[in-house]
Amino acid sequence: MKSIATIDRHRSGVSLAALAAVILAGSAHAQEASPPAPAAAQEEQEVPSVSDQRAAEIVVTGSRITSSGFNAPTPTTVIGEAQIAANAQPNIFNTIAQLPSLQGSTGAATGTFSTSSGSQGLSSFSLRGLGTIRTLTLLDGQRVVGANVTGVPDISLFPQLLVKRVDVVTGGASASYGSDAVGGVVNFITDTKFEGFKGNVQGGITRYNDNEQVLVQGAWGKSLGRFHVIVSGEYDHEEGVGPGNFGTDLAGSRDWYRASTLVNTGVLDSTNPQYLYRDYAQPYQYAKYGLINAGPLQGIAFDPSGRPYNFNYGSNGVPAGNAAGDVTGCYVGFCVGGDMSGHVGSGTSLQSALKRINGYTRLSYEFADDNELYATVNIAQVKTNNQPNPGAALSNLTVQCANPFVPDLVQAACADAGITSFRYGLSNAILPNIKVFTDRKQYRFVGGAKGKFEAAGTAWNYDAYYEHGVNITDINVRNILLSRRYTAAINAIELDGAIVCADATARANGCQPINIFGAVTPSSAALAYLQPENGPFQHTKQTQDVASVNISGSPFESWAGPVSIAFGGEYRREFYRVNADPYGAGVSSTSPYDDEYPADPLLLADGNNWYAGNYKNGRGKYDVVEGFLEVDLPILDSEGAGRANLNGAARVTRYSTSGTIWSWKVGGTWDTPLDSLRLRAVTSRDVRAPNLSELFAAPTTTTVPNFTDPFTNTQVLILQNTIGNTALKPEVARNTEVGIVLARPSWLPGLSLSFDYYDIKLDDVISSLTAQQIVNLCFQGDPTTCSAFDLNNPNGPNYVNVQAFNLASIKTSGFDIEASYQWQNPLGLDGSLTLRALATHVRKFVTDTGLPGTIPVDTAGNNTGATPDWKWLAIQTYENDHFSLTVQERWFSDGTFGNQYIECRPGSCPVSTVNNPTIDNNHMDGAFYLDIGGSYNVTSQIRAYFKVDNVFDRDPTPSPQTNTGLDVNPSLYDTLGRTYRAGIRFNF
């Protein structure tokens, strides 16, 4: 009876032999992280000879040439089924995101502080730190409808149990796969011939007794003559972590939050640093239950019972009592230490709760040998929720001294000071905390045909399919203020012996006064008025239609071997429509007031009435027609000189919005005469087309009363219209990679090594500008933005259209290293030992905004971002017929808060500038994480397993803010702590 380990390897399609072939085929990273089969099984999987490899049909995602994987020059990392299982994550996304070349991916632990982004819980990949919008994610080589208006898919919606491997192409692939493949491609390959029944049941929890997880997966497949059917289903529930509370209390017993902040001293000369790194930064504009923060009564705070007391400022601060609200002895906006009870940063969720349900079916009919018709249906839903922060901190409220809720002592102090009102700030701890709920539903249908045919004496492969995908996303925000109603509710008067809202119009429309001095909970009627049950919402529908055909074969031979070609075409249509509530979006013919959002004369008709979450209405579409040709030409094949080939591809694409553009690649590989030594290189022109959000952003309009007109040097009133820009062009990248591979040499056949250098130059990067930047750029002589505004409009109001432009650029370079060694019967023990390590070094990551007066900024090694200097992943696995043990190390290097800063000591600082401010400490520790897992074969078909992540419970290094947010970078650091998982897998 074969062990489960052996069965898994056979079903994954990533056996040691296949992996070796992929390695020799130019995918040096493509090595299974799980150990090889035991010796008996290993005999069944001989490594193919060079001639066998030439004939083998190995699909390498980096290329459309499928007749032979040998010739692909683009590096590709392969994560196989066994490694996915060994990592024991509730979401396959977490396993892939650990690869060093993936930097800045988004998941359930990122974006939790956001109310309006719509990206909460969205699991999407970012290669090379270039952002999720520049990484193309495919399912079986096919596009997937976006789960966000930026066009990125949600990995949580994929049929994960059927994934037998994931190919990660760490280089530009636009010529082969089209737009968005600037950073590379992540391709999920499913087992389309699966037979039997398999399942997985897993549970997990952190050492802080939160983020409880339950995962149940099952799949069944069977051949019925020429018919084949596969059905799978998944349920995953992750409870999430957080929120914490006001002050510095995090969820559970976590104690690492220190409100770390870069405080601004305001010093710009050469005596002292401008910025200081400090823990326990205290915002002095508000307190938990209220603080008078300016004027002669500045410094009076209120306890839970509403009694006034003198606020405890940090840094021995003394309120200046002026109209600006300065505090002597403190910094710009912050003191250090003192009363931290009103701080809101720790109240952010550390991980969004996530629940996903996934159903998948594939039906196929083999109408001839090696030819099939197929159809797939993938219906899935992902629900997430999080808390951005507690309360709703406000710091610039005006309170009348005569307000009947103002304590008598403060009213008397007002009279003594000769004032009738004061400025006030509070955390609004008396209000229910804001909650954001996101619901994504995906309906994806694919029908196609694939197989082989003979024509003109040549065997050809073909794959043609049509895909229709629909994604519906609903975002609902609860417990959030209508700002103008709040202003009316806190402005109270006494009328006929009762305390009421001062504004008669507000009273007539249901205004209920509230007491914001102390911890008095508002009445249910007041809360319903301030935070109506029907809060902000956004309903988005996205559709994607793709028709594609790809043909490949080897129609003739050169002097060095068969010449392979691939060609094809694709049509794609992308569409979105978004509808939002009238309080946020404004009243129009498409979003009139209704029963759920009754008309209120106090509110603004053009929207923007919520404290946050003011979603807008919009729609847009574009279509794409493209064709490509790829050629693989052997140029050398001899015993003395080795084997070499050239690989080239070109793709022409017509976008309905921006016209025609070309992408191409040229590369080659050389198997040198030296034992198992290969050289490879590729250079390419890659593109990313503007997405629906950038082209057709839902418009918003705000009034700016004191806008500076540089042409006349006067202040004017303008309407600021935030809109999409249909004139945007595709971003264009030049991507170059050069590498060397040592794959299973005869003197040490278990060893594989690779080194690949990359260099990416991305021009015409789409970036947003402020209204002032748009006007100033035109004034300074750049015509790019001159059509976006009119400050002397005789036919209507002056306006500035705030939109994105192709102005910025990005340059990044670095190298990848991978090494693995597979050792059979180590030290005489039965079984096998596999050692594997992957590392990425980012030499530079330079972003140039393209704006006058700014300088390029290099963020390589900036650990508040996504591109540390070094990042590596190492895995060691021992396995025999009975059990396995895996040890994994994840590490990234120390870095900086920002490379633009100049670190200096008092008395030795240069003059601080906007582009290069001075700072007293610019060091940010990296992190090391140890993970341990193992499995035991209960029977030949049932395996029990466990996994412990972050064994040492390593706390995240603070990522200092310049505001009151959560001081952590979840893109790099583990914010949850030690996590335990265990489960059972079965395969019948």
From TrEMBL:
Coiled-coil stretches noted in the UniProt entry, renumbered to this chain: none
TonB-dependent receptor plug domain boundaries: 71-185
Residues covered by region (Disordered): 33-52
Cellular component GO terms, alphabetical: cell outer membrane
Pfam families linked to this entry: Plug, TonB_dep_Rec_b-barrel
SUPFAM superfamilies documented for this protein: Porins
Motif stretch (TonB C-terminal box): 971-988
UniProt keyword Membrane, yes or no: yes
Start and end residues of each TonB-dependent receptor-like beta-barrel domain: 498-951
Top-rank taxon, per record: Bacteria
Membrane topology category: Multi-pass membrane protein
Predominant place of localization: membrane
Signal peptide region: 1-30
Biased composition (Low complexity): 33-42
Keywords carried by this UniProt record: Cell outer membrane, Membrane, Receptor, Signal, TonB box, Transmembrane, Transmembrane beta strand, Transport
UniProt-annotated location(s): Cell outer membrane
Family label: Belongs to the TonB-dependent receptor family.
Name assigned to this protein: TonB-dependent receptor
Organism, scientific name: Novosphingobium silvae
Lineage of producing organism: Bacteria, Pseudomonadati, Pseudomonadota, Alphaproteobacteria, Sphingomonadales
